[in-house]
Design goal:
It contains twelve helices and eight strands. The protein is α/β, with parallel strands linked by helices and 365 residues long. The chain is globular. 42% of the residues are buried. Bound molecules: the ligand C=CC1=C(C)c2cc3[nH]c(cc4nc(cc5[nH]c(cc1n2)c(C)c5CCC(=O)O)C(CCC(=O)O)=C4C)c(C)c3C=C and fe (ii) ion (2 copies). It holds the Pfam family Ferrochelatase.
Length: 365
């Protein structure tokens, strides 16, 4: 860098032509009217259902200080000395069990969402490129932004696919886009969608998918809404996640026309020794069985795509726990994935956020 800068101290006549070009700028040239870039970002997932691939993914995920807020010098030895030695091997068969033709369900569904939203928006006359990206693992946010810039995108909307805002999920996506921008001289314009926990399209799509299932198969005694958990201290430090979840749960219950006693809310996927949001999902399922509830339908409104936390933890482990405790039937109702009503709702949210940018004018609206 020093040597490259040095030529600017030299008299101008010694500089190679063109003297005014910026020799440091490795950014691709941008076409002024390139398409609008949209990143649909989800958490991330291993590249393969094998222990080494899971270890790589977890190492990146769990060393993010937004996710584990224990001081580094205490946490990193635990992570590398214990968690990354045991957990990958334990998870490998569980990932293998849910693996799909095109890869991990989380990635496959997020890619389908991106392709479908792109189709809808182009059909409405917008000039957009919509891509799926993962906060950890692949395809990375950095690679995805670089690829879209090569196609001429100079404006990016980032949509973290978490309906409820949390620093451990949403904020770290926004941090990462900022980190990518920090490496660029000619920065693109950036916008972000913070949350959509009570968006009428999102709530409507959830309600529609649940109601259609019930219309075809009948309704269980209880609907359990299970959200991903979070350490309690995150909430005490000001994270709005818990409030967001409760607002989603209420909006969904009202949209379904259910009474309060027909619905339970719980929090799953506890990780580590700290106290997390309560009630925990598995003890709730057991308690319901103990109280004589024999049938329960479980929905996970915080997951816009099915993944190990829903397909494995709820649909398999949760079901086993409920049946063992005396329950007769647990049905897991799938995540929104590429449900058409959800794709429309997501496209509407994206389109609203893109307003005012060149190429965002719609034929349909
Ligand atoms: C939906 C929102 C999510 C929040 C909030 C969240 C917080 C959070 N998660 C962990 C630890 C783990 N999560 C894991 C998987 C996982 N988590 C989410 C979503 C949220 N996490 C998704 C969509 C997934 C699925 C990934 C997939 O590959 O399918 C895992 C990995 C699996 C496992 O080891 O059990 C861990 C670990 C923490 C610590 C945290 C908040 C602080
Ligand atoms: Fe998680
Ligand atoms: Fe889990």
């Amino acid at each position: 860098m020093f040597l490259r800068n040095f030529k600017y101290l030299w008299p101008e006549r010694f500089l190679p032509e063109p003297a005014w070009a910026d020799p440091f700028d490795t950014d691709p040239p941008l076409t002024p009217d390139g398409p609008l870039g949209v990143l649909l970002v989800n958490l991330g997932t291993p590249d393969e259902p094998t222990a080494p691939a899971i270890r790589r993914y977890l190492a990146e995920f769990l060393s993010d200080p937004r996710v584990i807020e224990i001081p580094r010098y205490l946490w990193l030895p635990i992570l590398h000395g214990m968690v990354l030695r045991r957990r990958p091997a334990r998870l490998a068969p569980r990932y293998a069990d849910i693996w799909m033709e095109g890869g991990s369900p989380l990635l496959v569904y997020t890619q389908r969402q991106a392709a479908a939203v792109q189709d809808v928006l182009r059909g409405r006359g917008l000039s957009v490129r919509v891509e799926a990206a993962m906060r950890y693992g692949n395809p990375s946010i950095a690679d995805t932004i670089a690829a879209l810039r090569r196609e001429g995108c100079d404006r990016f909307l980032t949509v973290p696919l978490y309906p409820q805002y949390s620093a451990s999920t949403t904020a770290t996506v926004i941090d990462q886009v900022g980190r990518v921008a920090a490496t660029l001289r000619n920065q693109p314009e950036l916008r972000f969608l913070k949350r959509f926990h009570v968006d009428p399209g999102y709530i409507g799509a959830l309600a529609h998918s649940i109601q259609s299932y019930w219309d075809a198969n009948g309704r269980a005694q209880k609907l359990l809404m299970s959200f991903h958990g979070l350490p309690r201290y995150s909430i005490e430090l000001g994270d709005p996640y818990y409030r967001d979840c409760l607002q989603t749960a209420r909006a969904l219950r009202e949209r379904l026309g259910l009474r309060e006693d027909e619905v339970e809310v719980s929090f799953q996927s506890r990780f580590g020794a700290a106290r997390w949001l309560e009630p925990y999902t598995e003890p709730t399922l057991k308690e319901l069985a103990r109280l004589g509830v024999t049938e329960v339908d479980v929905v996970c409104p915080g997951f816009t795509a099915d993944c190990i936390e829903t397909l494995e933890e709820i649909a398999q482990e949760g079901r086993d726990a409920f049946l063992e405790a005396g329950g007769k039937r647990l049905r897991y109702l799938p995540a929104l994935n590429d449900d058409p009503a959800w794709i429309t709702a997501l496209s509407d949210m994206v389109q609203t956020q893109l307003q005012g940018w060149p190429g965002s004018a719609s034929r349909a609206l």
